[in-house]
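Task card 7
Instruction: Convert sequence to structure tokens.
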Amino acid sequence: MRRERAVVVELVGPAGAGKTTLAQGVSETDATVRSGLSLWGLPRRHLFRSAMALLPTILGASVNRTPLRAGEMAQMIRLGALRRIVEQEATRHRVIILDEGPVFALSWLDVFFSRNGERVPASWRRRVVAEWARLLDVVVFIDASDITLANRIRTRDKDHMVKGLPDEEIFGFSAGFRRAFERAIGELSQTGHIVVDTLKTDTGPVDENTAHLMTKLQKRRNGH
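Output:
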């Protein structure tokens, strides 16, 4: 049975893998692709609605003496707002590409909070995974060698928290996110029917990598 909504794709990968560049390249080549959606810069009205929906979780965590930190709450709110926007946009486009979506958000929470022995409420995570598993169709894991990632982070104009660190620390940062990505992808795959593809971006020019990504997306779109 054909679904009358977009194929929703998240591009996942460590910093410097080339997610944003690839998303822009695909959308410039194919007008039916909607890119540019991510956790950042979301409309305030959607953030407000998401914050209101999160209140029971925030209060419950406080009652259980495990209050959420500001950074956790902000990311949880953004993720709820993004889901509502994607649900709306999915009726208007054939393909939606998320640069930083649910896999990134859940991984970010793991990397920056779970490593300190903190963890977002399990009930919230299960609910969010279930909601996104119904919406997300494809995850493309984009990666490159550690040294390529480090060089890209240092030479691009975009700022990053590890930009000035030694290679070993950048390598460790990338490895931590890879582990978190694998956990989040595993949870979503177990709950839904998500297809996972991979793409290496240190083996060819941008145009060639963009063409490879478009080929992968075309296969998935034709399956709808």
